[in-house]
């Protein structure tokens, strides 16, 4: 998890507006590129971050949320936090794929697939934190 008192943190407080996903993706891409991630890794980060933020926009029922970026020589950490309605994080399961599956519910699964470390902490009526970390070269 990101320590909010670190010096090397970018914090963004954003309204829950779907049109801002493109700004969030560009920010994540710029930071990952600056660190030295390759194109495929940058795409993974962009998709994971946009999925996490989309979850907040769709499900949190809040007007704003916080997005944190932290980085080192070979990694990026991203944390998305909201103070929304939350859920029981123990009930978040990987999806079962079958012909009867309805759309939706794949966001956390996608994030876990693309990133190297993912933690989801959520409590009903106390909000949600989605933490993710990507390390350069870990996919190879």
Look at the helices and sheets and give the structural class. alpha+beta
Give the amount of beta strand, in percent. 25-35%
- The CA-CA distance between the termini, in Å, is 24 Å
- Number of H- or I-type helical stretches: 3
Report what the structure shows.
- The protein is of the alpha+beta class and 140 residues long.
- The protein has 3 helices and 5 strands.
- The protein has helices spanning 21-35, 39-59, 107-114, and strands spanning 9-15, 64-71, 75-82, 117-123, 127-135.
- It has a 5-stranded antiparallel sheet.
- The longest helix has 21 residues, at 39-59.
Describe, in short, the structure shown:
The protein is built from three helices and five strands. It has helices at residues 21-35, 39-59, 107-114, and strands at residues 9-15, 64-71, 75-82, 117-123, 127-135.
Secondary-structure blueprint of this entry?
Blueprint: E1 9-15, H1 21-35, H2 39-59, E2 64-71, E3 75-82, H3 107-114, E4 117-123, E5 127-135
Antiparallel strand pairs: 1-2, 2-3, 3-5, 4-5
Features:
140 residues; 5-stranded antiparallel β-sheet; alpha+beta; 5 strands; globular
